[in-house]
Specification:
Largest sheet: 6 strands, mixed
Strand order of the largest sheet: 8-11-12-6-13-14
Number of helices: 18
Helix content: 55-70%
Radius of gyration: 35 Å
Number of strands: 14
Strand content: 5-15%
């Protein structure tokens, strides 16, 4: 045993919000379109674009039809009117079919993209235990509520990206298709300035460009804070949902403490955040809607006002006037893509920022330097060499530890709370990266860790008992035998019952169920972190006595405070605090059997 004091690891940088740039956006969007799904994805995208082009073509045909209709009405030509109605019926039927399948294929591409992205991000989140390390390293986190990132922000990313891209393509094609129509039918306009005559060809096109540019500038100026407000709104909503879930998960403890008033106060505080931010969104949206609606409504009458003098002078027919109005509307609407899509753009950018932060956290957790090396070796003993443990912010927990646990040995770890006993087990499990040293685990050993609060998945009791093995891995007779051994015989006829077992069972029953898992999975190396603290003394001692009997040669490392368990162990590791900032050292002593 060797004890050496050393400085702790440096603290992680302070958390900050990430503003995603073009590189971050491309890194989020590109993977799916270069994956094994790319050919199906591009085929769907191509079909959707083709349908969009078809809809633009039909709108061009309807523009000409609209001109002919008003000319026929002006001329009181009833036979021609009936012919135009039949043309409209055919165009309308095709338009409806194209519109239906465009939506259908867009939804198909959206769910394919979202499913692929969700699987990928779930894998990244679960790999290298990033889900655990993100929660432990609070100071350096860019993102919160990773469940929301995967469930909601990925949905927003895929749906909004498709909506924006397809809308931009449709607007571009519409602009290209109608701008030459508007140029041709609007004709030139002439005016005199200081005795000189100026002529502007296709003047309605230039009016549309200037109109859209001014409107886009005003909308951007008013609405640019909306990205940050949407970002905060999603965060506040997620915090509120998380608070509600916490009350549900810890309902019994809250009820026993009579903590309803405190929980309500915390939930109301989170609800106040939602309300305050929502009012900010409302006020900004009101200003934005004033600009957008004024812009949109004036665009309806603007082309008629401009073309009316030519109509009343007899230069153009009523049909041409209506064609000008329709073409102007199509061109102006295409040029107004930014205005029409601004709210979606703001929501999309907020989702991109949240996903970029989440992605950065996951990648940083996965790439975190392994200063504590946990390796499998050919020996039969658990070895610890020069191990030093720290908290994420750098405070020293455990000074350099050299130790060895032989196969079949039972070690009891004791000491005051907060000195790093549980952290030592986390380091052996290779989920605690803060510190340095080397840990060797027998290569052929099945290792199990039992925390104080066992995890019970929601589902059938058989699945909860088999975890982490798959449901159905063990015969019912074997399960029933170990349920009886662990003093849970009343659960033997409930194996197919589905429930939230962490709520249905008492803490003591949950811990005894965890011991059933040990006997079913038959590990060679077992770590118990206060895994029997909720049991009565008789049940606890009975299970500890059953471990070497049922699992011969089992190596056990236990954290426990009850001295009655000392007789089931041959060695004690006693954690001894060394003073403020000095961490703990470990004293090894033999225990009388």
């Amino acid at each position: 045993m060797r004890n050496v004091s050393n400085s702790s690891a440096s603290a992680m940088p302070a958390a900050h919000a990430l503003q995603a740039g073009r590189g971050d956006i491309w890194r989020l969007i590109k993977p799916f379109w270069s994956s094994e799904q790319k050919w199906k994805a591009f085929a769907l995208l191509g079909a959707i674009i083709a349908l969009n082009l078809g809809m633009v073509y039909i709108n061009v045909r309807l523009n000409s039809w609209n001109r002919d209709l008003y000319d026929v009405l002006q001329a009181h030509n009833y036979p021609k009117f009936k012919s135009l109605l039949w043309q409209f019926s055919g165009l309308a039927f095709v338009f409806i079919a194209v519109a239906i399948y465009r939506v259908y294929l867009t939804q198909a591409l959206q769910i394919r993209w979202r499913y692929w992205m969700s699987e990928r991000y779930m894998d990244k989140w679960l790999a290298h235990r990033a889900y655990y390390r993100i929660e432990q390293g609070q100071q350096g986190r860019l993102s919160d509520n990773p469940d929301q990132r995967i469930a909601e922000d990925l949905h927003s990313l895929t749906s909004d990206t498709l909506s924006l891209v397809l809308g931009f393509i449709s607007s571009s094609v519409t602009l290209f298709s109608f701008v030459h129509i508007l140029w041709a039918v609007s004709g030139p306009v002439s005016f005199a300035v200081l005795g000189q005559t100026w002529t502007i060809p296709g003047y309605m096109v230039w009016f549309a460009v200037v109109y859209a540019a001014v409107g886009s500038g005003i909308v951007w100026w008013i609405g640019k804070p909306l990205v940050g407000l949407n970002f905060n709104q999603e965060r506040f909503e997620a915090n509120y949902r998380f608070g509600l879930i916490r009350v549900r998960e810890h309902s019994e403890a809250v009820a026993l403490y009579r903590g309803e008033a405190q929980e309500r106060a915390q939930l109301v505080a989170r609800l106040d955040d939602i309300r305050a931010n929502w009012w900010d969104i409302m006020r900004l949206t009101k200003k934005l809607n004033v600009a957008v609606n004024f812009y949109g409504q004036f665009a309806i009458i603007f082309p008629m006002l401009v073309s009316a003098p030519r109509y009343f002078s007899g230069a153009i027919t009523l049909g041409v006037m209506m064609q000008i109005a329709d073409a102007f509307g199509q061109v102006q609407d295409s040029l107004s893509w930014f205005i029409n899509a601004f709210s979606t753009l703001a929501s999309w950018k907020a989702s991109i920022n949240r996903l970029a932060g989440f992605n950065a956290d996951v990648e940083r957790a996965a790439g975190m330097a392994r200063t504590i090396e946990v390796e499998r070796h050919a020996g039969s003993a658990l070895t610890i060499d020069g191990l030093q443990l720290s908290l994420p912010e750098g405070a020293l927990l455990l000074r350099d530890l050299d130790a060895r646990v032989e196969s079949g040995e039972h070690v009891l770890i004791s000491g005051p709370s907060g000195c790093g006993k549980s952290t030592l087990i986390r380091a052996v499990a290779d989920i605690w990266p803060y510190g340095r040293g080397r840990i060797g685990v027998p290569a052929d050993a099945v290792v199990m860790f039992l925390p104080q609060r066992s995890y019970l998945p929601i589902g059938t009791l058989r699945a909860a008992l088999s975890y982490p093995a798959a449901e159905g891995s063990f015969e019912d007779a074997v399960i029933a035998r170990y349920l009886a051994l662990c003093r849970l015989p009343h659960l033997a006829d409930r194996l197919d019952q589905a429930a939230n077992w962490s709520q249905a069972l008492s803490p003591g029953e949950q811990q005894r169920l965890a011991f059933v898992r040990v006997f079913l999975n038959r590990p060679q190396l077992l770590f118990l972190d206060e895994a029997s603290s909720a049991m009565d003394g008789e049940a606890e001692e009975a299970l500890y006595a059953a471990l070497p009997r049922e699992l011969p040669g089992l190596t056990v490392v236990s954290i426990a405070h009850r001295e009655t368990l000392a007789r089931f162990h041959a060695t004690r590791w006693k954690f001894v605090p060394q003073g403020e900032g000095e961490g703990c050292r470990v004293e090894v002593m033999a225990l009388a059997q």
